[in-house]
């Protein structure tokens, strides 16, 4: 990515997809060029959490909501220390934010962090194109970065694809840190950071859990050095087919029978650890309005998603694995994609979505309580 200092963002901009379709608009955020995988998010709120979610590393996010930036940017809602999206696409950016917590405009924040974006394009047409053709590589060019479209297309097609990308090590912490329990400490959890969001350990801390966040390279010895009551595997970016080390570590945790919980990338890691395959979705699930059914209760939840890969597991009943029987516990009602796994003979489960859901909804917050129940049962 290359950028120049922010002006008034009157510079022209062009978005070029790898299949040759282009959209012309105005620069938004930093001026320059950027590349990534074009994906769309259907959330109408929570753009600040989306931008700072490490799972969006190397992705250019298209917002389907037409008006973005209304509440500006504050210092309380980021899910990490920086913006992780590779680029940002909006139709009608807010001119002036209106929120009592706002400290600066979204445009200013994008520019300050060097995130190249584009506005004033038909995001509905772009979203329909991605739904029909699938997520694909994309480039955004503005200001002096704009050149002949043939040359720009060649640049886009030279970008590595998301399939086969090993990215969790690029976003995870390099040093262990501890998030203390809020109130009385009840449990200790070792959390393997594959791209963890800040709200996730906070949700556990609210339940009396002291969370030791470990790098993605953590070994089994590193995990058990903290004497955990439970082990957690986080969300993160990239292709789960490349995550051989986390899969190996998770299998060792399953062997020991320690209560285990995984979300998003962690769900895919559990799928692989159990012997299932993973595959890339055509355009993925991203947003905070995805319907999922908890098959263990029959309850339907509105949930927050960000995943372009899924677990290939049978929906029609329990499967035998080296660690006992496992069943698909949650399923997306839009397309029957596996959204959760639950072992029947060991204390382990996972979901493909975000129960911490800082921007909402909070239908799935009970999953943290389910994790607590597993640890209580193990202790008893």
Q: Mind sketching the topology for me?
A:
Layout lengths: L1 E3 L7 E6 L4 E8 L1 E11 L5 H5 L7 E5 L3 E2 L18 E3 L2 E2 L12 H7 L3 E4 L3 H11 L2 E7 L6 H9 L10 H4 L5 E3 L7 E6 L6 H7 L3 E6 L5 H5 L5 E4 L10 H13 L3 E4 L1 H9 L3 E18 L5 E13 L6 E3 L2 E9 L5 E6 L4 E4 L14 H14 L1
Parallel strand pairs: 4-5, 5-7, 6-8, 7-9, 12-13, 12-14, 14-15, 15-21
Antiparallel strand pairs: 1-4, 2-3, 2-10, 3-9, 4-10, 11-13, 16-17, 16-19, 18-19, 19-20, 20-21
Structure characterization notes:
- With 380 residues, the chain is of the alpha/beta class.
- It has helices spanning 47-51, 106-112, 123-133, 149-157, 168-171, 199-205, 220-224, 244-256, 265-273, 366-379, and strands at 2-4, 12-17, 22-29, 31-41, 59-63, 67-68, 87-89, 92-93, 116-119, 136-142, 177-179, 187-192, 209-214, 230-233, 260-263, 277-294, 300-312, 319-321, 324-332, 338-343, 348-351.
- Strands 11, 12, 13, 14, 15, 16, 17, 18, 19, 20 and 21 form an 11-stranded mixed β-sheet that branches. Strands 2-3-9-7-5-4-10 form a 7-stranded mixed beta barrel. Strands 6-8 form a two-stranded parallel ribbon.
- Helix 8 (244-256) crosses helix 9.
- The chain is globular, with a radius of gyration of 21 Å.
- The protein starts with a strand and ends with a helix.
- Residues 2-8 have low confidence and may be disordered.
């Amino acid at each position: 990515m290359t950028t120049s200092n922010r002006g008034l963002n009157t510079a022209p901009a062009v978005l070029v997809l790898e299949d040759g379709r282009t959209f012309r608009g105005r620069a938004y955020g930093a001026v320059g060029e950027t590349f990534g995988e074009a994906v769309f998010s259907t959330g109408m709120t929570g753009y600040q959490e989306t931008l700072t979610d490490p799972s969006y590393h190397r992705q250019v996010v298209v917002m389907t909501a037409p008006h973005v930036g209304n509440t500006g940017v504050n210092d309380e809602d980021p899910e990490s220390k920086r913006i992780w999206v590779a680029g940002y696409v909006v139709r009608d950016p807010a001119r002036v934010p209106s929120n009592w917590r706002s400290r600066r405009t979204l445009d200013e924040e994008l520019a300050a962090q060097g995130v190249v974006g584009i506005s004033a394009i038909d995001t509905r047409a772009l979203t329909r194109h991605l739904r029909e053709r699938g997520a694909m590589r994309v480039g955004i060019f503005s200001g002096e970065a704009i050149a002949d479209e043939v040359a720009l297309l060649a640049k886009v097609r030279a970008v590595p694809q998301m399939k086969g990308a090993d990215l969790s090590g690029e976003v995870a912490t390099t040093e262990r840190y501890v998030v203390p329990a809020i109130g009385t400490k009840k449990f200790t959890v070792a959390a393997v950071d594959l791209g963890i969001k800040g709200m996730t350990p906070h949700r556990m801390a609210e339940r009396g859990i002291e969370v030791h966040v470990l790098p993605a390279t953590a070994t089994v010895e590193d995990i058990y050095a903290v004497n955990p009551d439970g082990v957690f595997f986080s969300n993160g970016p990239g292709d789960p087919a490349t995550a051989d080390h986390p899969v190996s570590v998770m299998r060792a945790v399953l062997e020991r029978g320690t209560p285990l919980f995984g979300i998003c990338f962690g769900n895919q890691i559990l799928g692989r650890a159990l012997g299932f395959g993973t595959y890339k979705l055509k355009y993925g699930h991203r947003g905070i309005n995805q319907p999922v059914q908890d098959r263990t209760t029959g309850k339907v939840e509105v949930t927050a998603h960000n995943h372009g890969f899924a677990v290939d597991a049978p929906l029609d009943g329990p499967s035998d694995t080296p660690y006992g029987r496992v069943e698909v516990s949650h399923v997306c009602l839009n397309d029957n994609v596996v959204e959760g796994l639950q072992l029947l003979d060991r204390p382990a489960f996972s979901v493909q979505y975000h129960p911490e859901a800082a921007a909402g909804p909070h239908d799935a917050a009970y999953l943290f309580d389910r994790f607590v129940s597993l640890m209580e049962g193990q202790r008893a």
